[in-house]
Amino acid sequence: MHQTGANAVALSQAAMDYRRIEKAIAFLSAHAAEQPDLSRAARATHMSEYHFQRVFTRWAGISPKRFLQFLTVEHAKQQLRDAKGLLEVALDSGLSGPGRLHDLFVSAEAVTPGEFKSRGGGIEISYGIHPTRFGSCLLGVTDRGVCWLSFLGNGDGRTAVRELKAHWCGALVREGPKICGPVAARIFADLDKPAQRPLGLLLMGTNFQIKVWQALLKIPAGSVTTYQAVGEMIGAPRAARAIGSAVGQNAIAYLIPCHRVIRESGLLGGYRWGVDRKRAILGWEAARAAA
User: Where in the chain are the domains?
Assistant: First the structure.
């Protein structure tokens, strides 16, 4: 699969929009109780009302006012109530619902014990930095699938590359954006199109971590769940703290949707790549599911 010029332009535009959208989301979240109007939100992002409405709607597909509804605690609580039935279906069928059919789109494989012990010995990883709807990402791929996907904080690619190399310290890691580009395009531009073959993931973690990450793949897009519910999915309902740690150690953002795990109170909790980005992803997914 080749990254088309149209896809590249669309992703670049979405990445540029995201830098402004993230500021808007942070403002809307901080002032959600006040239900800020369009004028206030636009001023917070240093844009005119017209330009802000245009950029936000282009990025999210819905108005800022509608998006704000998806960021409220009450909406999150309702999602948690609705998700119980969806997760039961996911467990029974092995699928994650019609919204994404994530388990058909993604095929996860764990490294061998020897590769785990050597932290990726014998594995070759190509990496590249690419624009996405949620900001620039560092993507790492092997001949067995994606092994790394992290969002950049403040555009700092060097820090992200160091984290990749530290995690896969036994592997041969080299720059290869031309190899990663088509994969990035597929991840962020073609999720709703039927996949000719699953996108492979290569996971390196403890047995417990891998069980948690595999459970996350069953959470439907547009839905959220709790740490306790993930524990019930893997037969460890009292291991919420350990599950939280495993969720936080996920090295393949977005594809392994750790952003869909929130607290039972409806509050989002933390996120390895920034809580405002978590809000952005969840709000965007909720908007698409509602549409």
Answer: 5-70, 73-290
Active-site position among 137, 147, 180, 258: 258
Greatest distance between any 2 Cα atoms in the chain: 58
Considering the chain, what is the average pLDDT of its residues? Answer: 82
- What pLDDT is attached to residue 290? 73
Instruction: Indicate if the pLDDT at residue 205 is higher than 90.
Output: yes
- CATH architecture of structural domain 73-290: Orthogonal Bundle (1.10)
3-state secondary structure the chain: CCCCHHHHHHHHHHHHHHHHHHHHHHHHHHCHHHCCCHHHHHHHCCCCHHHHHHHHHHHHCCCHHHHHHHCCHHHHHHHHHHHHHHHHHHHHHCCCCCCCCHHHHEEEEECCHHHHHCCCCCCEEEEEEECCCCCCEEEEEECCEEEEEEECCCCCHHHHHHHHHHHCCCCEEEECHHHHHHHHHHHHHCCCCCCCCCEEEEECCCHHHHHHHHHHCCCCCCCCEEHHHHHHHCCCCCCHHHHHHHHHCCCECCCCCHHHEECCCCCCCCCCCCHHHHHHHHHHHHHHHHC
pLDDT digits (tens, 9 = 90+) for 92-146: 444 334 333 344 467 889 999 999 999 999 999 999 999 998 999 999 999 999 9
Is residue 169 annotated as a catalytic residue, yes or no? no
How high is the pLDDT of residue 286?
Answer: 83
User: What is this structure's pTM?
Assistant: 0.83
For residues 254 and 151, give the distance between their C-alpha atoms in angstroms, rounded to a whole number: 9
